[in-house]
Amino acid sequence: MVKNTNIRISLPAVCFVWQIAMIILFGVFIRYNEESDTHWIETRKKNNISTDLENDFYYRYASFQDVHVMIFVGFGFLMTFLKRYSFGGVGFNFLIAAFGIQWALLMQGWFHSLDKEDWKIKIGIENLINADFCVAGCLIAYGACLGKVSPVQLMVLTLFGVTLYAVEEYIILSLLHVRDAGGSMVIHTFGAYYGLTISWVLYRPLLSQSNHLQRSVYHSDVFAMIGTLFLWMFWPSFNSAIADHGDGQHRAAINTYLSLAASVLTTFALSSLSKKYGKLDMVHIQNATLAGGVAMGTASEFMITPYGSLIVGFCSGIVSTLGYVFLTPFMEKTLKIQDTCGIHNLHAMPGVIGGIVGAVTAACASESVYGHEGLIKMFGFEGKVSNRTASVQGGYQAAGLFVAMAFGLVGGALVGGILKLPIWGDPTDSNCFDDDIYWEVPEEEDENIPAFGHQNMHHVGRTPDVHHRSHV
Prior knowledge:
By secondary structure, the chain is mostly helical. Helix content is 63%, strand content 3%. The strands form two sheets. Strands 1-3-2 form a three-stranded mixed sheet. Strands 4-5 form a two-stranded antiparallel sheet.
């Protein structure tokens, strides 16, 4: 039986209906917060604020711009490595991110920003940053399923992914009072295990029929490298965007900057050692070089010291690169997990490393390092958790990591079961990784004329000799 992949009705219906639903829900629930509506003038007077420059917009907007670029340009272009799926990589990234940020503003708003007086969600610039963070988890999950699912399935994946993210974020950050400014646990660990579990449920035993399409060409790898560079440059903003104003935010940028730099050198070294004749593998360079940013997420605002940041980047670069060399082929052959972008290597393992580093660093915190007030401010030892010690905080940090993993695994299994229903117009095994199924594709170049880079194509992942990718 031939699958029907025609999306003429299903995709427009989903997009129109869900966008209309967003308009209605925003009309009922969403309002500007006090710093983004006309009452800011009254707020300034009441709080003796003398200038508009103290509006949170001026503290956060630069970071918001950087994070926004990462979501739409960095993530999108990093997934353009497949020779016949660049439209799908960057285009569907655009689609699900645009839908996801709207749903995230609602879901996160109901948990974090609901005004109990008028039951409205009050949003400002920090809400926009958090919505981008939420969407990042879904884009990570998309990396595991890249080229194997329909756009309607991706919308469903995002709908449930944002919902699960909002719940696990609330549990980890608000109930457990865990610190995770850069989202090693909340974003990367959850998103990776969510996507990997969905990919496991949707396992395609005959995917080798699309083997000839799961390759890159010279110019597609160059485009993917553009995504890597955008992500690498802006990652300090990602990890520091919602950190505390002042020293916490400053420290998060420094620590991430150093960790990223260390992961680059480590990746180049191991990539050369792992290949014949010492040549470099672009798969490693595009992806494992970013592992330091992922692993530094949780502890980014802690007093981990500059050399500690280099150690984190060094270790995460090793783990991520070796994951591409050894683990990804094993996962597909033995565990039946077809991880198109290798998100296990760039998000799951470095995310777990980040959670562990955060737990250890928190448990070792002391007044001699942070100062009394600094320790209280850093870990929020106030209110309900005013009696919490640093060692207890370390235990809660570890608990947060397990919550993120549990939500990813259980949620991915449930959503994978829904996506496995034969109603979503997903491609056949022989048509995966091909834009022609869902896009109007320009005519092919004349095969008699050598196209830029066509002489240097390589596989991306079906046998132990073949490279597996990863996505940020």
